[in-house]
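Good day; I would like, with your permission, to put a structural problem before you. The record follows directly beneath this note:
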Amino acid sequence: MSESTESESRKLLGRLRDALAEDSAGQARLDRITHLIADSMQTEVCSVYLFRDAETLELCATEGLNAEAVHKTRMRLGEGLVGRVGKFSRVVNTANAPAEPGFRFMPETGEEIYSSFLGVPIQRVGEKLGVLVVQSKQARQYSEDEVYALEVVAMVLAEMAELGAFVGEGEALSRLHTHPVMLKGTVGQEGTAEGRVYLHEPRVVVTNPIADDPHAELRRLNEAVEQLRVSVDELLSNAGTGDKEQLQVLETYRMFANSRGWRRRMEEDIARGLSAEAAVEKEQSAARARLEQSPDAYLRDRLHDLDDLSNRLLRILTGQGKDTGAEIPDNPVLVARNIGPAELLDYGRKLKGIVLEEGSVGSHAAIVARALAIPLVIHAERITTDALNGDHILVDGERGVVHLRPEDSVTSAFRDKIAMQTQAQERYSSIRDLPATSKCGTTVQLMMNAGLMADLPSLVGSGAEGVGLFRTELQFLIRNSMPRRAELAAIYARVMEAAQGKRVVFRTLDIGSDKVLPYMKPQDEPNPALGWRAIRVGLDKPGVMRMQLQALIRAANGRPLSIMFPFVAQFDEYREARAFVEGELHREARLGHPLPEKIEIGAMLETPSLAYAPRQFFEMTDFISIGGNDLKQFFFAADRENERVRRRYDTLNVSYLSFIEQIVNRCNETGTPVSFCGEDAGKPVEAVCFAAMGLRQLSMRPASIGPVKNLLRRVDLAEAKAVIDEARTSGVQSVRKSVLEWLQTQDVIA
């Protein structure tokens, strides 16, 4: 790139900065800018198109086209050459615009006399703001230098738009981050919440996109990149031989940090007149646009790594750390790309809701959110781009929907929904201490799921009769090293004390699949959900299992103890695990420690194979808990993390209900207590059907106990069974429609 070209670019940016500094309205600034760009690039036309909504671009300023077309000419995303630039975030450079595929002639603009066209996206870190266009009568292809210069200018316009430099009348010139946005994600934890956004990692704000001294900016960039390299190397050395996925991410960081092409492009941006910060952000935006369009899933996944690394570099350059000093607002709703369990626990119950761009229904964050009973929506794309600290936000965890800066009508309807839920909870409180006894006299025991000490107060408030599942893995997931036996024993003892004599079923360490300990090297498995997890890890790592069993026995300190092994697939696994418990009981007795007054050793039935285990298994096990979340995905061969398939299969499918009934019958033959544990147990209609199939204990999140008990007390389970049987014999795939129609005739649901 020639020195004269760089000099012209810096001159243009200097003139732009002066124009932006003038005390004038947003429209006047835009008009001045289009004139400066056209003059500097020696083109007859320069136009700025901005998004008025997510699908529509509007001509907001022009030098050369008819002035009457401003704020009147609009086009849909992908429509015409301008729409193509806006949709794909790619440069369109042509000497004969009318001959281009997709060209759309806009007669009100008077552009028919212009042949050449150059359009570049105005974008900022994944946020599409508009399109910058220059046109000439002469049929010519714009040079690489001219394209590059226009991209640099577009970058500055994006930064200034972010800072509110072009605010004026109309939707297209309204202040950024003021429009209502509705985002559809995935339910991570049910519940509803209204509050204010609190960004876990606030966006870096670049206030100085244009610089006078390129040599000083290059020096700043080099120093920051070197500091970044050192920090990445330190992260890698500290990671050691830990989490393989984490190591891969850090290696990607190192690759980017040492990329000559990445650095060279930023240096060229600085030579053009950008500040070091603006150069980093321009390259981040350009790389983002390239990666988003890539058909390679691996490359698209690297987009987040590039974002994270660029943000680290920007924080070094600007001095804006993750802690910006922004106060947590009242009723905070945490917004983040992703978050670890320990970080989430630091926020605790002060959060009203959580919205993540990534995550999964089985992730550590989702487990903690469920434990804290905080509504969670995951896969809410672009939430960290669209949201600002303090924004009004509504989280509908029942439907996986988020309303950001909602309109009054949406807020009103949402508040009505919350009020109805509050009224329902008040109704449920009147039956809190009553048994879940149906009209036919059948009593179903309702238990709650838990994983933290913070859950235990819900035992009283929810009316739960005990803890049907206490997830012990959370105490392992939130640490950077294996917890000590004494620590675990103290935690388990506090749980039993808080339960005040009510039964607590402790599930042994359930890790693997989507729950990977940061200090236990994961296995390289193509399908971890069907791999080395739960009891398989415990049997292969007997030291860990024995340590946890010792902690549980010591925590009981003479009280009754219930232990449950997860993901048992065959009789021998349970038999071997039970032998571990018996061995530890003998050992504790020899050491003179008090043994539990009574001990129950159960198994979670999460794989169809265990339902067909020998009779001796059902005779030996003290109780069985059907783990509905995993059993359902294995029964239907449908990954519960995969939105494309998991919704295809209904819990009230005839085959699935018949399978549940078969398990209940096998347990009844041997007198083995059996329960159902999982999300579906907390859905009232499903709970009625499970009870009709013979289940007499259900375990669910505390908030679900009231609604489930309310419906169970108002129905006759014998009648429900008759409705299900009739539907099954009719050949339908699911009994849901028949059951819902029957419930409506009973006047128990709307």
Notes: The chain has a mean pLDDT of 85. The longest helix spans residues 214-239. The radius of gyration is 31 Å. The chain has 27 helices and 23 strands.
